[in-house]
Amino acid sequence: MEAPWGFSEERFQAACRELSQPAPAAGGAWQLLAETMGIGIYRLCDEQSGLYEYKIFGGLADCPPELLADVYMDLDYRKQWDQYVKELSEKIYDGKRIIYWEVKYPFPLSNRDYVYLRERRDMEVDGQKIWVMLAKSVSLPQCPEKPGIIRVNSYVQSLVLASDGKTGSKEWSTCFPQRPAEGLP
User: Fold this and answer.
1) Measured torsion, CA atoms of residues 171, 131, 158, 32, in degrees rounded to the nearest 10
2) Over the stretch 63-96, which tens digit does the pLDDT of each residue have?
């Protein structure tokens, strides 16, 4: 069972298993949105809500997985290259590192913000080093909602990286959508 303040060992293992799965087949339930430079982006519609789950499969031929994992975890560096970051910080609450992230949206849309727990594990699976990053929204009284900003309470992400056997990386990522209450504006 998933703990509210962390991720179970089974959740990390399940993420690792996804890396060994092939990309979704054409014509299946997953729809290919874009494919470029060896990376495919897919989406799957949830029939009940009408929302989409997204998956990314692919690799970067000249970027090692450990570097990708380090960049993903480096909030200061993200503030340098991501023009949509309005605020991004990490604080310790109840012994856990919690991220606050406000994302700038263009007019007439409202900015979104996220309060989430993120955890990285460098694992070995069947003799192969795997980097796993998991994230999910949390609700904390120390991080109340701000007027005029839409809080995303349904954020869930998995990112799994491994070597491509040469000098690059292969990756799998999934991100679950925002709920309708977190929609427009």
Assistant:
1) 0
2) 899 999 999 999 999 999 999 999 999 999 888 8
